Amino acid sequence: LYALIAGAFWALYIRSSASVGELVPGASGLAVAMVVGAICVIPGALLFPGPVALWSVTHDTHLVLFIIGTSLLASVVPYSSELAALRHLPEQVFSVLLSLEPAIAALAGWALLGQETGLMRWVAIILLITASIGITQTTGGSAPADETSDSYQRNEPPEQTSPLPLPE
After folding, report:
1. What does the longest C-alpha to C-alpha distance in the chain come to?
2. Buried b (16+ CB within 10 A) or exposed e, 28-45
3. End-to-end CA, the chain
4. DSSP string covering 108-168, please?
5. Which of 76, 89, 94, 93 is nearest to 13 (CA)?
6. What are phi and psi of 36, to 5 degrees?
7. Distance (Å, rounded) from C-alpha 7 to C-alpha 2?
8. Are 110 and 117 in contact (CB under 8 A)?
9. Residues 57, 41, 15, CA angle at the centre, nearest 5°?
10. Whole-structure pTM value
11. 84 CA to centre of own chain
12. 80, 27 Cβ separation under 8 angstroms
């Protein structure tokens, strides 16, 4: 059930990010999304503070810099990169690349933190990537040409388009 819910939200994230990327130039859409996300989290942070209240760490400069660096590396940089990628890649290709994130995270956790992932998690990661590639192969690019199009009536193959400009 949790996997289905996560998959549904993942699909919504891809579709809504693609729409924002088309409608809003630059990173303005991301900036608004970050502010809205922060506003949504603040009530919970105020009602249920952690073992140390966030405002009590503001006197430690190193910790504040660590918090800012973490927020940039964990949110701003990845989401900016994803938004830029969605502007240039088809959603199907982007979804396959997004399905690689758990594998990259597991490898980074192992290399940087010495975390063990375990066989069951690797099987789940491989199944996720395989499912993403499989759904892309079965839904993308294999649709028959529209019967009313000129190329269909002349028995010509449909025009292939590339998401990125190709060198001449």
Report:
1. 73
2. ebbeebeeeeeeeeeeee
3. 49
4. HHHHHH-----HHHHHHHHHHHHHHHHHHHHHSS-SPPPTTSHHHHTTPPPPP--SSPPP-
5. 94
6. -60, -45
7. 8
8. yes
9. 130
10. 0.50
11. 11
12. yes
pLDDT category of residue 122 using cuts at 50, 70 and 90: very high
Question: CA dihedral in degrees (64, 67, 72, 75; nearest 10)?
Answer: -150
CA 74 to chain centroid, in Å, comes to 12
**CA atoms of 104 and 106, how far apart (whole Å):** 5
**pLDDT digits 0-9 by tens, 26-81:** 777 777 777 777 788 888 777 776 766 666 777 788 888 888 888 788 877 887 88
The whole-angstrom separation of Cα 71 and Cα 42 is: 15
Structure tokens at 163: 């998401």
